[in-house]
Structure formats: structure tokens, C-alpha cells
Amino acid sequence: STDVPDTIAEFDRVPRKDNSPNYKYAKVVRKKQERRKLHGHDCDCCKEWYGDMTESQKKLRMKASSRHRKQHAPTSTPEGFWDLGMEDTQLLKERGYLKQTQVQPPRKRRRRPYKQNFSPAKRAAGQED
Asked: Which of these, 33, 39, 50, lies nearest to 73 by C-alpha position?
């Protein structure tokens, strides 16, 4: 009989909802101590600075001194994504956007030829209708 009030008390509580989104979301972290807890990652410019370190050394160095700290490391854009304008055909072939051997399909022919409105004989003689 003493278990009944405890059971009822459990049903009186509203279950907590997890308000975090189910996708990679960049939440702003404002305090310096909270930013220190985030994972460090490197960008293209920083890769040269880390040089030939092993992965474990690189992780320790990033944790200690990385300026790029986020919950999730950002995805990298493909090569040439930010290039504006039209690319050269040779460059597009090298990247694999164009096939090396593209064969043009044969041209469709008309079953009946076009109706000839002006005959070449009249045009040469200068006689037009």
C-alpha cells in the first residue's frame, strides 16, 4: 500500500524533452572556459603549421592551442567550389566532370527535305517573284 503513492508521484512528472537538434548545429559558446572544452580542429591554413606531427601529437596540440573550436568539425568544400566563372575544358576533364571520350550522337535526318522556296536558277538570273 506504500508503493502506490510513489507510483502515482512518478506519473505526475512531465518527462524531460531533449531540445537539442538531431543534426550538426553550431551553437554559440560564449565563455572562455566553455570554449576550452570544445574539440579543436584545423583548417587548410593551419595544416602547414602542424607539419609532420603524428596524429596523437596533433590532437594534443589542437586541444591546447587551436583557434578553431566547435562541437562538430565543419565539412570541407570540394576543390574548385568557390571558383567563380567558367572553368577550362581541360581542367574539367582532369577533375572528372567531363568524359574523356564523348561521342556525339548521329544527327537525325528529315524524312522529307525542306520545300525549296527559291530556285537557284532564278536567283542567279536575278529574277525573283
From this structure: 39
For 70-117, what is each residue's pLDDT tens digit?
887 777 787 778 888 888 888 888 888 887 676 778 888 888 877 777
The three cell numbers locating residue 113 = 527535305
Q: What is the pTM (predicted TM-score) of this model?
A: 0.40
Tell me which DSSP letter residue 120 carries: H
Q: What element of type H or E holds 39?
A: strand 39-40
Q: How far apart are CA 47 and CA 49, in angstroms?
A: 5
C-alpha 108/C-alpha 122 separation (Å) is 30
User: Are 40 and 62 spatial neighbours (Cβ–Cβ below 8 Å)?
Assistant: yes
Round to whole Å and give the CA distance between 3 and 13.
Answer: 17
Bridge partner residues of 69 (DSSP)? 40
Query: Hey, is 47 helix, strand or coil?
Result: helix
